[in-house]
Write a structure and sequence with these properties.
Blueprint lengths: L16 H8 L3 E2 L1 E6 L5 E6 L2 E5 L4 E7 L3 H9 L1 E6 L5 H6 L10 H5 L3 E2 L8 E2 L4 E13 L2 E13 L12 H4 L3 E2 L5 E2 L17
Antiparallel strand pairs: 1-11, 2-3, 2-6, 4-5, 5-10, 6-9, 7-8, 9-10, 11-12
Length: about 200
């Protein structure tokens, strides 16, 4: 087995940094984000640069590479909903990633059923097993990208997707993920492992 490594210097113009990063930072959870414009036109699009930014207060974040409809809508209305992209919804999630005209509501065009959210005016995806309702906290401009931070106002989970301990069950959520190139990830194999109380402990 060889341990020789290829080196990709980011100042080398021959390095394709975006596909390199997206093929290395894997798997990435998918935030299927619903928003509305100031004129009330809906938007639904998947974003895979997404994670928890803060536990207390609860804040999530996603990154918009370029000035996309999702970013513009969040700036205008200061609200968005993160819908969990589940395996049974792969086709509509992928279809909603197409470059729709800003005047077109992706959910309506693709026949994706929405329902009212509890704490924000933006609707959530009805079939999504979990959703996170957010109000804009702040945005951070970084080069060609914008980090969007959202205060979590409510998390809704289908009761059928809850485990006995009251938390979401991975086998019920069936989360999709994005990998490199045009690759996607199926729901992962899950195992439990206790964290040691002290270094070297069991």
């Amino acid at each position: 087995m060889t341990h020789e490594r290829a080196v990709f210097a980011t100042d080398d113009p021959a390095v394709r940094i975006y596909p390199l990063l997206t093929a290395t930072v894997v798997p990435r959870p998918i935030a299927w984000i619903s928003t509305r414009s100031a004129e009330g036109i809906g938007n639904l699009a998947p974003h895979s640069f997404y994670t928890v930014a803060c536990a207390n207060p609860p804040i999530v974040q996603f990154t918009s590479v370029g000035d996309k409809d999702t970013l513009r809508n969040v700036r205008e209305t200061r609200e968005f909903v993160v819908n969990l992209a589940a395996a049974p919804m792969l086709d509509p999630v992928n279809a909603s990633s197409a470059r729709f005209d800003p005047r077109v509501d992706e959910a309506e065009a693709l026949g994706i059923r929405l329902e009212p959210s509890l704490m924000v005016s933006v609707p959530r995806v009805a079939e999504a097993p979990a959703s996170i309702e957010c109000r804009l906290h702040s945005v951070i401009e970084l080069g060609d990208s914008t980090i969007v931070l959202g205060d979590v106002l409510a998390v809704t989970v289908l009761r059928t997707a809850l485990a006995a301990d009251g938390l979401p069950d991975m086998s019920a959520l069936q989360p999709l993920s994005r990998l490199g190139r045009d690759e996607w990830g199926h729901p992962p194999a899950v195992f439990a492992l206790d964290r040691p109380d002290v270094p070297g402990g069991s």
